[in-house]
Fold Decarboxylase.
Amino acid sequence: MDVSFLGGPRPQRGVGVVAPFDFALDRELWRWVPDEVSLHLTRTPFVPVEVSLDLARLVSEHRTLGAAVRALSAVAPEVVAYACTSGSFVDGIAGERAMCAAMTAAGALPSVTTSGALLEALAELRVRRVALVTPYTVSVTRALEQYVAEAGVRVTGRAHMGLTRHIWRVPYREVVAMARRAVRPGRADALFISCTNLATYDVIPQLEAELRIPVISANQVTMWAALRRLGTRAVGPYQALLDEAARDWPPLPEETHDPHDTQDPHETQKTQKTQRTKEHGEGLT
């Protein structure tokens, strides 16, 4: 059979991903990736510890990360990403930078972490106040708050789930409910949904439309930052981080000004207040 007409395969660019042993959302990462890029995943060794600060430190030891990066180097990725939020914020900004340095030293290629990508995304969106949603316990959530505060960003609201295992099973409806709890109107410039094991892809556009602020998530910022280093863009329709046009929300119905309404809004409020007072007084007679 003549196959000369086929050509290909298309040239492939690679992103190496080091994930914790319990990471279960490979398919979500792929949703942000353009066709010409392939993900090459590896996992850290299993440790019999539930999600906690102790686990965060165990899965982010430099020796462990170095071994994972060297394994990935066999398929020649152009960048490597450490896909774990708590593992990369647990020792603060200095700890995150040291992790990147260790990974780069092991593979001689650019490296990013989820928490480092978070700070990049906050800077990209010019966020000074952020609300947080996490699946973590109180202690792990507080460590995230400290990390964000160290970067000069104020936390204005938070909601956490208190989970120590099986985080990938959390349904979208619970993520949405937690987001509504965390965000106080007018208090946050953005919402961050933490943990690479917490699914978020499909709820980001809906939450942004409802909350009217950028909504960023752990897996989203990880892929966004890694792909930036390739000079390409993550795929995510109607996600503010990935599309500047998505950062302009149409006015809510009550915010729409009627061009035929020439009455002073202050006079309208005064009239309404007078009417309510009159009705209240008539009710007492």
User: Anything to note?
Assistant: The chain has one domain: 13-247. The radius of gyration is 23 Å. Residues 261-285 have pLDDT under 50 and may be disordered.
